Amino acid sequence: LAYNTNVSSAENSLISAQAAYDNAINVSRNSLATAQVQGAQQVATYDSRVKSALEALQVAQAQLNKILAPADKYDISLAQARVRQARAALDSTNNQIENSIIKAQSDGTIIEVGYEIGEQVSPTKPVISMLGDNYFEIEVLISEADIAKVEKDDKTEITLDAYGEDLKFYGQVFFIEPAETVVQDVIYYKVKINFDPGEEEVKSGMTANVIITTAQKDNVLNVPGRAIIEKNGDGKFVRVLENNQVIEKKVMIGLRGDGGMVEILSGIKEGEDVVTYIKESN
Question: What are the structural domains, with CATH classification, of the chain?
C-alpha cells in the first residue's frame, strides 16, 4: 500500500512538472513572439527615420550645390531684364507723381486760382496766380521774330514810369509761355520776369519798361545798322570813305545790339570812316 501511494504521488508530481514545463514553454514562446513583433516595429520605425534623414540630406545637398554652382548666363539676363523693367516702371510712376505737382518758381502768396476741380485747363489761362514775397513779376509780350532769342534766366534791366529812367531795377526771365498770344492779328509770346525792388515801394500794376539781354559781348567792333547795305545774293556791305572816295566793303555781321548797333566780325577795321548816309545831288 505504501508503495502504491508513493508511485501515485510521483506520477502526480510528474504531471504537475510536465504542466509547469509546458506552461513555461508557452509563456516563453509568447514573449518571444511579442519581442519579435516589437522589434520589427522598431526596426521599421528607425528605417523610416533613416530614409527621411537621407532624403532631407539629399535635398539640402542639392540646394547647397545650386548655391555654390556658378550663375547661368540666361538666368542673369532674365534677372537683369526684370530689374530694368521694374526700374522703368518706378521711373514712370515717379514722373507721373512729379508731373501732378504744381510747383511755384519762388516763394509768394497765391492771389488767384483760375480753375475748380474737374474743369478743363487752357494753356492761355494760368491755373494759379501768385505774388512773390520779395520779388515782383512783370509780364511782357515778345514778337515771334524775337522770341527765339529769349531764354530762361536771361538778365533784364527794368525802369518804372513811377520812378523815372534814372532808377534801374535788375531781374531775369523765369518763364516763357509756349502758347502764342494774338493781339490785333499779330502773334506774341508772353515772357515773365521777376525782379527785386529793394527798398523802393513798388506797387502792383505799375508800368514798366524792360530791356532783355539775350547775348552780350565786350570790346567788339560795331557800326550803326543803317550803315549796312543788304545786297540779295551777294551778302552785306558797308560803305567807307577812303581818299575822299566812297567804296563798299563786304562784311560779316554778328550780334544786333541796343540802339541799332550791329557787330562787325570781319570786313572793316577799327578807325575807318563809315558812311551812314549819302545825300543825292539834284
Answer: 136-213 (2.40.30.170), 222-274 (2.40.420.20)
